[in-house]
Design brief:
The chain is built from 10 helices and no strands.
C-alpha cells in the first residue's frame, strides 16, 4: 500500500464508493499507476464479510478491474513504452543495453510474469507495460492476464472475506504486503542466481 495513503483513508474510500473503489483502484494500479489497489480489494472483501458489500460483486469488480488495468498498461507499453522507459533510464543512469536486456528477460518469462505478477510487489504495477514493451503477443497476454486476474482476485477477496472475521484488518493487509515483498525477493533471486552461474561457467572452463 502506498505510504502516502493510510489504511483508514483507504477504508473510508471503500465504504463511500463501494464497488467502484475496488474496480477503479485495482484497474489504475494494474495500468501502472502506484495506487493501493490491492489494499482496496482486501478492504472490499473485508466489507463483504461484514455484510456491507456483496462478495460476488466485489470479486467481479476486482477481476474486471485487474483485467482492464493490465490491458491498458499493455497497450501503453506496446505503443511507445520503451522510449519512455529509455528516458526514465537516463534519469536513473541505466544504459539502453541494460534496459533492453531487462525487456528480453521479461519476454522469455512473460507468461509466468503476467499470470503470477499480481502476487508480487511492484510487478503487479509493471507487468502489463512490460508485456507490451517486450512485444508479447496480445492473445497470449490476454489469456494469461485474465487467468491471473481471476486467481488473484479469488484469493484476495476470499482471504479478506473469511480471514477478516478472525484477525484485524491491519494485520491482514500487512501480512499480504509482506508476502508480496517476499515474493519479489524470491523472484529477483530466481533471475539473478542462474545469471551468476552463467557468468561463472566460462571462468570454470578456462581454469580447466
Amino acid at each position: 500500500m502506498s505510504e502516502f495513503i493510510s489504511l483508514e483513508t483507504v477504508e473510508e474510500i471503500a465504504r463511500q464508493y463501494g464497488y467502484w473503489a475496488v474496480f477503479f483502484g485495482i484497474s489504475l494500479e494494474n495500468a501502472g499507476i502506484p495506487l493501493p489497489g490491492e489494499t482496496l480489494t482486501l478492504v472490499g472483501g473485508f466489507l463483504a464479510g461484514e455484510g456491507e458489500l456483496d462478495y460476488w460483486i466485489v470479486l467481479l469488480c476486482a477481476t474486471g478491474g485487474a483485467i482492464l488495468g493490465d490491458n491498458f498498461g499493455y497497450w501503453i507499453g506496446r505503443w511507445g513504452g520503451f522510449p519512455l522507459l529509455l528516458r526514465v533510464g537516463k534519469l536513473l543512469r541505466i544504459s539502453q543495453e541494460q534496459l533492453e536486456r531487462l525487456r528480453d528477460q521479461f519476454g522469455r518469462n512473460a507468461a509466468k510474469a503476467v499470470f503470477l505478477g499480481r502476487f508480487v510487489a511492484l510487478l503487479r504495477i509493471f507487468a502489463g507495460p512490460l508485456a507490451g514493451i517486450s512485444d508479447m503477443p496480445y492473445g497470449k497476454f490476454f489469456i494469461c492476464n485474465a487467468a491471473g486476474a481471476g486467481v488473484w482476485a479469488s484469493v484476495m477477496v476470499s482471504l479478506s472475506f473469511f480471514v477478516g472475521r478472525l484477525v484485524p484488518l491491519e494485520k491482514l493487509v500487512s501480512g499480504v504486503a509482506s508476502f508480496s515483498i517476499g515474493a519479489l525477493v524470491l523472484l529477483i533471486l530466481a533471475i539473478a542466481i542462474p545469471r551468476l552461474l552463467e557468468l561463472r561457467n566460462p571462468l570454470n572452463v578456462e581454469e580447466k
